[in-house]
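Troubleshooting log. The previous run stalled partway through. Resubmitting the same two chains, unchanged.
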Amino acid sequence: METNIPINTIKISEKACEKVKEFAINESREKFGLKVAVKGGGCSGLQYVLKIVEGPEDSDKVISQNGLEIYIPKKAYVYLAGTYLDYTDGLNGKGFEFKNPNAKSSCGCGDSFAV
Amino acid sequence: MKFVNTKNYSSSIYFDNNYNFFSMVGNDAISFLDRMSTNNIFDVQSSRTVITDNKGSIIDILSYKVIDDKKIIFVSDSDKNKSIEYMKKHVIIDDVELNLIGKLSKIVIFLEKDKIFPDLHKFTLSNTYKNKNFIRYELFASNDELRLLENSKFKKLSLDEKNILDIHMKYICFNQSMIKANPLELGFRNMISFDKGCYVGQEVIARLYNYKKVSREVVPFQTKTELKINSKIIIESKNIGNILNVQKNSGNFVGLCLIKKRFTNLISDEILNI
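Second attempt completed without errors. Output:
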């Protein structure tokens, strides 16, 4: 796991990038990026949002990594700064997995967190 | 426990205070309230729902009505801003706006179980609660709607009488000074959807329900000792619960307490010791 993520950015693993590209190609998208956000809800109060989109909105912060553009709404950024997004597959894999240093607690499935 | 002559109150009304009346508007309004509270807002269009924190403790209870796919109106039981601020804090990327619309009068009507209040649908918001003797209607009405009650023949209740009837029905009027509790302990099972998916507090509430780990329940009591709300109930030096509400009733005090289940059989006039 990546441990040294600068607090003012988020990082996405190579594997997670490849998986996003794979999903986008399966959806026949030519132009795409990954929206990473947070919304109220989930067992713990805040839940992660992952969405393949065509491009950023005006209020999104844009980060480029491993040939993939990541769009983060500014309001969600405060909850995500320093996060590492990974992808684990196989029998015990959890799919996309957030390692978020702002999360004080998470729910059992890892989809939501509290700060 | 019988401390009410039900026949005296078979058709009675209590006029409560005015309550703040809010709207939740936006493309994500229904999805947002569904994620923030226990009821299934998509399926149950008009009811009550519990706002809980991530530990499953109650923050507030809302009476709500879905107006269309972009608008919900609601009133908070506690009529405090805490739950509104709590929800606003969770609006991050959702298209949702919470606004104070104005004030509505709250009216409580008690009818005998077999009687029906026919004008229920004419009021802005309403809830129904039943037990074996009564149906308790809670209405939130505008000034125009209040006129619908002008010529009614209901017996007018004082606050004390209304409180006694609520205690008799084991109806809990939630307020934020109440001790921390989860909705299952307070008997709000009918406001919880167990198949709608995640909402804040769901993991804890679902686990308590599925593993039958709800450790406390609401029990009515009657005593000659004057008790204070939230005070501890001590039996043989053990804290077994707390007083939720209390009301003087012809020389005695009646109320509801939240008691650890294994001690509920001990609640009687003789041993209640605060």
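Takeaways: Chain A has a mean pLDDT of 87. The radius of gyration of chain A is 14 Å.
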